Amino acid sequence: MTRSVSEHQLAVEQLLGAGGYARAGRGGGAAESLPLTAALGRVLAADVHAPVALPPFDNSQMDGYAVHLRDLGDGPAAAGNGEPEGHLRLHVGAPVPAGSSPPPLEPGTAVPIMTGAMVPAGTGAVVPIERADPPRFPALSTGDGGQPVVQLPAGTPAGTFIRRAGSDIAAGDLALEAGTLLGPAQLGLLAACGLAEVAVRTPFRVLLLSTGDEVTEPGGPLGDGRIYDANTTLLEAALRDAGAEVLRTRVLSDDPEKLREALDTPPAAEIHLILTSGGISQGAYEVVKQALSGSGVEFPGVALQPGGPQAIGTLGGVPFLGFPGNPVSALVSFEMFLRPALTALTGAPAPRVALPARLTAPASSPAAKHQVRRGLYRDGRVELIGGPGSHLLNALAGSNALVHFPVGLSEAAAGDEVTVWLIGPVPPPAPPVPAPTHQELPS
Amino acid sequence: MTRSVSEHQLAVEQLLGAGGYARAGRGGGAAESLPLTAALGRVLAADVHAPVALPPFDNSQMDGYAVHLRDLGDGPAAAGNGEPEGHLRLHVGAPVPAGSSPPPLEPGTAVPIMTGAMVPAGTGAVVPIERADPPRFPALSTGDGGQPVVQLPAGTPAGTFIRRAGSDIAAGDLALEAGTLLGPAQLGLLAACGLAEVAVRTPFRVLLLSTGDEVTEPGGPLGDGRIYDANTTLLEAALRDAGAEVLRTRVLSDDPEKLREALDTPPAAEIHLILTSGGISQGAYEVVKQALSGSGVEFPGVALQPGGPQAIGTLGGVPFLGFPGNPVSALVSFEMFLRPALTALTGAPAPRVALPARLTAPASSPAAKHQVRRGLYRDGRVELIGGPGSHLLNALAGSNALVHFPVGLSEAAAGDEVTVWLIGPVPPPAPPVPAPTHQELPS
C-alpha cells in the first residue's frame, strides 16, 4: 500500500477532523475566555463584531487648527493647483486636547486641536500647525490681553486631516473572523474595540509516547549500542511551537504488551491525538506495529523521503499517528502531515511560508518519491545542508528550510528553482533602503 | 533634527547595547538553566559542544543483513555497472536489534540487523532485507533444524547503508553557537547529545507605560471624546511575541508630574528598557515630552511614515524609548526599530522574513520619507490594505505584511516590485507537488 504525499495529507486531515477536537466545537474545539494578552498566539473561537466604530468620532489627524467649514471658502476648487489661494485671519479659540468633548466651532474662530482629539461640530478641516503663522500654539492662557489671532492658508479642501468616525471600521461590522490567529495587531484591535477578554479555542492536546529499547532519556549515562531519545523532545517542542498541549509518556521497553498497556490506560485529560515515533517499519522488532496489529491501525508506505513509513488509525476512538523513528523523518512527518492538519482543524499554527529558491549546487532525488532535504535559505537561494540521511539531526539544526524535490524530479542543477518551506530564522537581508544621510533629506 | 530610518535603527541598537541587559552577560544577558522543552524559543547562552559523537557508533541505515567486509568480494569494482555480479550464500547468525551491542561478525555469516542498530565489528556493508532471498527475516528461534541460509546479491560496495559514527557531528565539535534561537530541531539535537538541561539567556525586560488622558482601559465605558487604549495591549503582545518580559504600568493622566513620579519609582525587577507610546509630538499636551524635558531624552524626527516622531534616551541609567501614539505608528516603530535591536542584542526574535513582492495596484508615497504601508502578501504579490493613515488598526489586523516604500520613491505602478516584511500568517500556497495517483507511483 503506497500513498502519495497528498493522499496521506488528506488522510491525516480527515483523521483529526473526525476526532474529539472537532466534535467538541463543531469543527473548532471548545472555547475559553482569556484576558487579551493571555490570548497571544491563540485562535478566535467566534466572530467578533466591532461594538464601537473606529475611530469612535471624527478626530484630528494632526496637531493644528480646526477651521469652520464656512471659513474654508473655495477650498475644493483651489485644491488642484498645489498652492493655496491667499490667507485666512481667524481668532484663536479654546484649545481641544485629545480626550475632551469640545463645544461647536464658531465661524471666524480657529481652535488649536491635538492629534486624535474630537473635532468640534462645524469643523471643515484641520490645518497643521506648521502651516500656521505663527507656526506654534499661543500660550494656553492669554490673560486679558485680547484674543490671539492666527493666519492660515486659505483653500484647504473640506475634510482635510479629519479622520471620520467609522473610517477604519463601522460599529457592528465584522472585526475578526472565528479562526483568526491572534497576534499583536489583532489583540490591539480587540482592545481598541473596548474588549478586555476574548473567547479562544481550547488547545489541541496530544499524548506523545516514546518507545524503544535502544533509546535512553537525555541526562543519564549512555550504554553500548544505545542512543539518546531526541524524538520526544523534538516532537514535543514542535507540537508546543504549533500551539498544541503535550502530555508526554515514556514506555520503557520494546515490549508490545507494555505499549498496549500504556495505550489502554485512560489519560488524565481528554486527548485529541496519540502520537508515537519509531517501531513502524519493516524490521523484526517493530514495537508499535506489533502492539497495534489487529487494532485497525494501518501502516501505509508514503512516497516521501524521509518519512516513508507511516502509521494511521484510531485507538479507542482517539486519532492515532505513528511517525518513523529517525529524528529527521519524525520532523519531516510532522511538517508534511500533522502541522498542516492542525492548521486546517484548529487555525493554529500559521502555515509555513513557502517560497521559490534557487539551488546553490546540483542535487539528485529519487524520481518515485517526494524528497524533502534540509537547507539554508537566504536572499532567494538555498544551500543544501547535510545529505539526504534521516539521522542527520545536527545538519537539520543548522538549517532554516525544508527543500522540496517533488515526484518525477531526479536531477536538479545549480540555479534551478525549487520550493522551500521556512522552518527557522532567515538571516536578515540587507536594509530595504539605501540609508540617506542628513544632507540628502529635505529639512 | 531629522534622522534617516537607518540612523535611528543604529541609535536604538546602540542604546540597548549600552544598557543593563548587555552589561549583565557581556553582550548576551544573564543565563539560567532550563529543562529542554522549557527552553523552546529561548536563546542559547553559551556554545554547546557535542559531548558524544552523532551517531555514537557505526549503525545500520536499513533493516537488512550485515555482511562481513571479506564476503563483499569485488564489491567496489562491481559498483559502477548498476547490477551486482552473482550472489553470495551466507549462514544467518543471531539478529542484532537496535539497542544491543553485538559480537564481532564472522566471515561467511550474515546477521539480521535493524535500522539504527550497531553494526558488528567486521561488517563491510548492510544489504537491505528486500534485496535478500528470501526477502524476510527467518523466525528468530530456529530450533535444532540447522542454521538458516540467505542468498544476497554480491558486489555491494563497502560502507553501503552504514552510518558512520560521528558522520553527523564528531564528539567535541561545536553543535550550537551561543546566541542560537532554540526551536524543535535545536532542542532535539541537544537531547540527542544527552543533555537534559540547557543554559539560556534570561529574557529582556520592558517596563511598558501607558499614558494619556484620552485613553480608557478596555472593558470599561467609553466617555465622549475618548478612545480605548489599544497601544498597551498591542505593544505588550508584540514584546511578548518577541520573547521579552513585560511589566505594564498605567499612568492615569496627562499630568507630566504623575509620569515623572512613575518613572522615578524603582521597579520591582531589573528593567532593561522603559517604553511609552504617545505624547512625544508637536502638540500642546505632549505628556512624555513635557515630563522628560531637561532629562537628556531626545525627540528626533525620523524620515518614516508612520512613526516619524520618536523619543530616545536614558532615564536613571535605563534605556528609554517613546513611540508615537497612533496604534499603527506604534507597531511600525516597534517593527522598524525595537524588534531588530532586540534580535541584535538578545538573539530573539527571529528577524522578519523580507521578500520581494509585486504590487497589485499603483501606490504613491512621500519621496522624502520611508513609508511603511500594510498589505496582504500571497504568492509573490502584495495588495495594500487600507490607506496610509496611522489610525487604521482594523486594516492592520487584516494584513500580513509591512510594505516598504523607500525614500526617493513617490509613485509605484501595479506590478512594480517592493520589499515586504511578513508579520502575519501567509495563506498556504498550492501544494508544492502535483499529487500523483496510486497508479502513477512505482510499486
TrEMBL record, chains A, B:
Xref: CDD domains: MoeA
GO MF annotation list: metal ion binding; molybdopterin molybdotransferase activity
Entry's Gene Ontology cellular component terms: cytosol
Cofactor(s) needed for function: Mg(2+)
Listed pathway(s): Cofactor biosynthesis; molybdopterin biosynthesis
Protein's GO biological process: Mo-molybdopterin cofactor biosynthetic process
Short name of one Pfam family: MoeA_C
InterPro entries, per database record: MoaB/Mog-like_dom_sf (IPR036425), MoaB/Mog_dom (IPR001453), MoeA-like (IPR038987), MoeA_C_domain_IV (IPR005111), MoeA_C_domain_IV_sf (IPR036688), MoeA_linker/N (IPR005110), MoeA_linker/N_sf (IPR036135)
Similarity field: Belongs to the MoeA family.
Protein name, UniProt field: Molybdopterin molybdenumtransferase
Organism for this UniProt entry: Arthrobacter crusticola
